[in-house]
């Protein structure tokens, strides 16, 4: 039997004793009146003499993380949802319950009632008058979490990761702060938060392969949305001039450090605005978020420092290929030369790929990895943007931008196409591409075209990847670090324990 299994069996034996003799190892209720952060805020600046005089009473609850005994006394650390707090337990004051307290295991959840004092070493501490076992833990925590061999175990058993890794807890607190900050920013600008269908008869709003499901009562196939875009624009048609949705979307694509099949976006649409308006709005939003979440507009990203304040760099899509990517002009303008150039650099191309798709691969290979500081890439080829409006002075291009930061796309925005006949033609072109083998081409959505026929005002729309934005503002290089329960491959053999090898 392994050492961990021995510990589990020992804890189960202890549980049996508690069930037979008491106290109840899983009590129904306990109401803490304080937490570690509040206690430090109220009493952290007080002197030992002040606390000795006041003896302020507290009731706190959390997980037992450490304990060390000194005969008739014991020190322990309790971890609640806000942080850690030291607890001092003295046998002469606790009485006969002291023996039971000594049997507590690391990981047990306990409640402590007592008063505050400062130890000789200067640590703010709860002097326990009563300790109550609230929940018995049957599995030992990893002794040295930083020594894990298999990082995927942290994602499969995120609950353990959160217990023992303070940095992970902070990442998800920042994620919540980012989402709340986006919501405040948009509502301050008079945007209305809405909800649109997650199951759709026609998946649209992006070039991506959807997940399929089936509704038994209606006897029809439905698709998990790849984007909320077409429904949000229906709301613009309906008279809501500014709408947004913080949404889950799903794309049946590969998993990587920057892709998860289930992801979170914010999409917002603004009547009487264009993509230039949205560039300015995005600069302001990201600057405010950085200050709110990180306290500064300068954020660390790997070995780089990224400045999120001020004006961002701007390049047209075409400019970026030769000015940043260093690709010769004759390669950019010739489809066959572009394919040959990619193949020479080890990038595969498919027979079905049209010219714009090849240009996109040129960008992904030669330009994107170099875009560390915030950069707007704008004026994309028409064929890459079936929902964006053409430029007045060049109908081969559309009014679209992508915001690149840290060598990744963070945001995507258009001046929205509102000409129903043009939209119908583009949908037909997408259907032709799908029929030719492009599984990510968009579908025909006749109802959306009908909505446009009622008239949609000039509109700007944008989507921002919240997972990637969180990666940026928490300095994480993998999307799995910022999603609480990321999608993982099925394990061949289900393991229920984390690898705690030091």
Low-confidence stretches: 145-149
Query: DSSP helix count?
Result: 17
CATH architecture of the largest domain: 2-Layer Sandwich
Range of helix content: 25-40%
Quick one: how many beta strands? Answer: 19
CA-based shape: elongated
Question: How is this fold's topology laid out?
Answer:
Elements: H1 3-21, H2 36-43, H3 48-54, E1 57-70, E2 73-79, E3 84-90, H4 91-94, H5 97-102, E4 109-118, E5 124-135, H6 152-156, H7 158-164, H8 166-188, E6 192-193, E7 199-200, E8 212-215, E9 220-224, H9 229-237, E10 242-250, E11 262-271, H10 275-294, E12 298-301, E13 304-307, E14 313-316, H11 317-323, H12 329-332, H13 335-344, H14 355-367, E15 375-381, E16 390-391, E17 394-405, E18 408-415, H15 420-435, H16 446-453, E19 459-465, H17 466-474
Parallel strand pairs: 3-5, 6-10, 14-15
Antiparallel strand pairs: 1-2, 1-4, 2-3, 4-5, 7-9, 8-9, 10-11, 11-19, 12-13, 15-17, 16-17, 17-18, 18-19
